[in-house]
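Per-record layout

source: Flavobacterium sediminis
name: Aromatic amino acid hydroxylase
length: 587
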Amino acid sequence: MNTAFESNPLIDRLPAHLKQFIKPQNYEEYTPINQAVWRYVMRKNVDYLSKVAHESYLEGLQKTGIDIESIPSMYGMNRILKEIGWAAVAVDGFIPPNAFMEFQAYNVLVIASDIRQLEHIEYTPAPDIIHEGAGHAPIIANPEYAEYLRRFGEIGCKAISSARDYEMYEAIRLLSILKEAEDTPEEEIKAAEDRVDYLQNNMGELSEMARIRNLHWWTVEYGLIGTVEDPKIYGAGLLSSIGESAWCMTDAVKKIPYTIEAADQSFDITKPQPQLYVTPDFAHLSMVLEEFANKMALRTGGLSGIKKLIDSKALGTIELSTGLQISGVFTHVLEDEGKPVYIQTTGKTALAYREKELVGHGTAYHAEGFGSPIGKLKGINLAIEDMSPRDLSAYDIYEGEQVTLEFEGNIKVTGEIITGTRNIQGKILLIKFKNCTVTQGDTVLFQPEWGIYDMAVGKKVIASFSGPADVTSFDMVNHVPSTQTIKQKKSPEREELENLYKNVRLIREGKPAEITLKEAFGAVSGNHPNDWLLSVEILELAHQNHNDDLSLKVKNHLENVKQHRPEVAHLIDNGINLILEKEHASS
């Protein structure tokens, strides 16, 4: 694992399974064209968003140290974010949804450190530093919103996924990488789009994770705030897209009051959104989140919660009414009258209490799985966990006794009690047996030859959630994405163009440059006729210097580019308008 990244106390306390996603920012890898793309988008955004974004946005840009002129350094951002109790880390593109949300629970903002290509300056399906840094970071300067984000992470990372969710994550990651990469063959993009399309239409019943991701999308990424008639933007996807931030304000995009029903509205990451949700204020977001959480297995438990974990085929946890937590891959549940009466995990399992692994009950001890009855003894209204020492003695639940415990659902446990494990309040969490047989009718669930039997104590399952109770119980440093982001290709032509961008930047900053502005324009117009952004930058400087002759030549050249490349005409016009607006503002 590469740990060569700037750290701070908030990042230091992250568990190892999250740190595995962090990578160094490698600031020196940003090219002069990357810097020009950042500057163009930020100048356009700040100009436009000052009119349509939530008031926290512009205040937050200043508070989080995000500069319009240059791509932000994580180190600089962290120094400033620390003052509002947050931190930022760089990652490679999309990371799994559970991990993304768990970072938020630790007050850490995940930032994809790559930046979109000039060809995708308006919008990219791939997460990039414009989206994350200029979209997410400014709004977290608002304390009410920051708490919503943290709480969302805390609840969201416990949401149970389906096996299909992970397929969808991998498919979207691949599509975003192929779309952002240079020269990807059309058939490859088409195949990746078809895969995403197929999965989107064949997800079956939406999992908790799919539904909470919908809520995340319609708030954190694409949220509007205010009234349906006069909304403002706060979602990072809109704040970072110069195309969609304008499009979303038109009547072509339907505006809907934000409610829990947004959890059932899926989204297509590759297209502009046909409808958006408007929250009256940030407090309403938290109310809807709590309403959703109240329906999650995290809070409802029961038979349905266990079944969700079994369907997920992934590491999860159930918590019993005694507080005992069982973490592993759940494979079977026996039920009686709609209630679970016996649960079974397969493979490494750990037992915990209050998120702390019980001594002697880690994955080395429970390497083959764990099974236990759940519920009350048959015909006895008093659950084992509620029995006093006298009650326990009356029912022969006592060290050294040979006992047969018959549970509801026809589950029988027969063996000799060795000892019990209690919590700090004195409730029994576990009973350890030797020479033990566990059956349901004629089915044997455990036999003496398998060794010591640890029986969980709990009359019901009060919670089921994704991941382990104690994150140190399992080795989760094992995520290997099937795809890596593709870096831009190097070529002599590209390097020459980068060098021209670099020199124009030096001229703007008043630093010594290798060539004049006029020479830079001659080279870009002669050798790189398809490039438009550098000519816009040259026009800006010629305009500032009152070099009318050069300004006229650049304008004529840009008119030619617009004729040859009509798809960038509006971007050129936007750039020219920014220059003229700045002139009017300063005159």
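summary: The chain has three domains: 9-162+207-285, 315-466, 492-581. The domain at 9-162+207-285 is CATH 1.10.800.10 (Phenylalanine Hydroxylase).
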